Amino acid sequence: MFTSIRLLLPALLLALIAGCAPVETSGEQMDYDETKKMIVDILKTDEGKKALRDIMQDDGIKQNLIMDQAVVSDTIQRTLISEKGTEFWKKSFEDPKFAESVATSMKTEHEKIIKDLMKDPEYRSMLIEIFKDPELEKEVMEAMRSNEYRQHMQAVITETFESPLFKAKLQEMIIQAASDINKKQDKENSQ
Q1: Region 47-59 average pLDDT
Q2: Among 22, 48, 114, 169, which is most exposed with the fewest C-beta within 10 angstroms?
Q3: Residue 133: which region, alpha, beta or left (left: phi > 0; alpha: psi -120 to 50)?
Q4: d(CA 20, CA 12)
Q5: H or E segment at 11?
Q6: What is the per-residue pLDDT across 61-116, written as a single tens digit (0 to 9) for each?
Q7: CA distance 49 to 55
Q8: Contact at 8 Å (CB) between 134 and 141?
Q9: For 6-143, where are the E strands, in sequence order?
Q10: CA 53 to CA 134: how far, in whole Å?
């Protein structure tokens, strides 16, 4: 009996201490926005940044963050080559703004690839062979003589002349030419 009292006494003491602890009410609990703000503020401090750096240097974390090459390859194939992926890209490229942004983002990379290819002697020789092919030359000449090509060229030329950038450049060239003529005439008159 004395042993059971010895065991019961510490348990009662713990219950008494726990009963005296302050109890949070639901009104005092922090809501989601306050908790989020507090965590963001902590992460912005130097100590928070250092803690994140330490976590990111942990080998176990690194292994979980680095994607397996096979997983990446498989995901790309499933999303780009699948029927759903093909439909997604077709719909996306129908939007002119999306197509323009993709073209703009890839422009410098494409230019770099083409410039590198033009420096490659093997590629250049293949390109020259293609242009020397009599059948290709014949097809190009037939295409250039067609009414469709002429209409297309006329539309391109009209579009170019209506472009504000071209108009400004043309105006600049005319002003420069007139200035050069005036300078030349002034020079001839002064002699």
Answers
A1: 81
A2: 22
A3: beta
A4: 13
A5: helix 2-20
A6: 776 666 566 677 777 777 777 788 788 888 888 887 888 888 888 888 888 998 98
A7: 10
A8: no
A9: none
A10: 64
